[in-house]
Design brief:
20% of the residues lie in helices and 44% in strands. The protein is an alpha+beta fold. A hairpin with a 6-residue loop joins strand 8 (137-146) and strand 9.
């Protein structure tokens, strides 16, 4: 009976400790989100990496994005993508084409610029991960594990600068062994930004540049 009591106490303490660590991880993410939301706008230059050792794949691409609330203007791999609060506009310069779409609710796992600081709020469980010193900066990692067993994601690591509460990187590992890393190279806030940056100019691309514009129904 004594051994059983000790075992129960040990289990309860373990559960309590796990719960506290999960709450600590959630609080760290919430603080990073609150810090981001306190800015009028954010400009980020990033390095995007795609790695799969088994398939011998390694790709690195630089890009930048300007965020203002849910609005964003992204430059990546020779394309522009902007979201005006209602629709997403993908401008493919090489093909002289613009694709207009409404945000899809069918792909909740995709980390879009609008969800960069809030994607963790649904569909994940939390745990504290490693604390690393990177380039002299303390980066605390939080591990997110999908609650949906059918998810294609194995886990996501979010690195947060312990001093500034800014996100340093996001590392997503898929069940197919592919790792996608978004690393922040430059983080600027409250820059002079024109509202036109988030508005798609139809005349500019249809009349002046003669781009093909498609809007799937």
């Amino acid at each position: 009976m004594k051994k059983l009591t000790i075992l129960l106490i040990t289990v309860l303490l373990s559960i309590s400790s796990f719960g506290q660590k999960a709450q600590e991880a959630r609080t760290l993410l919430d603080n990073a989100t609150k810090k981001a939301e306190s800015y009028k706008n954010i400009y980020i230059e990033f390095n995007h990496k795609l790695d799969n050792k088994e398939a011998n794949v390694h790709q690195e691409t630089l890009g930048n994005v300007t965020l203002k609330g849910d609005l964003y203007h992204l430059n990546y791999m020779g394309t522009e993508q902007l979201y005006d609060g209602k629709k997403t506009y993908l401008i493919i310069h090489e093909d002289e084409e613009v694709v207009i779409q409404k945000p899809s609710k069918n792909n909740e796992e995709t980390i879009t610029p609008s969800k960069m600081f809030s994607f963790y709020k649904t569909g994940f469980s939390f745990s504290m991960d490693a604390l690393k010193i990177i380039k002299g900066v303390k980066i605390q990692y939080v591990k997110l594990t999908p609650t949906d067993r059918n998810s294609e994601i194995s886990h996501v690591l979010v690195g947060i600068d312990a001093k500034t509460n800014h996100i340093y990187n996001i590392i997503e590992t898929g069940k197919n062994k592919t790792t996608t890393t978004l690393e922040v190279r430059s983080f600027k806030t409250n820059q002079p930004v024109s509202e036109k940056l988030f508005i798609f100019d139809v005349k500019k691309y249809r009349d002046q540049k003669n781009y093909t514009i498609s809007e799937p129904k």
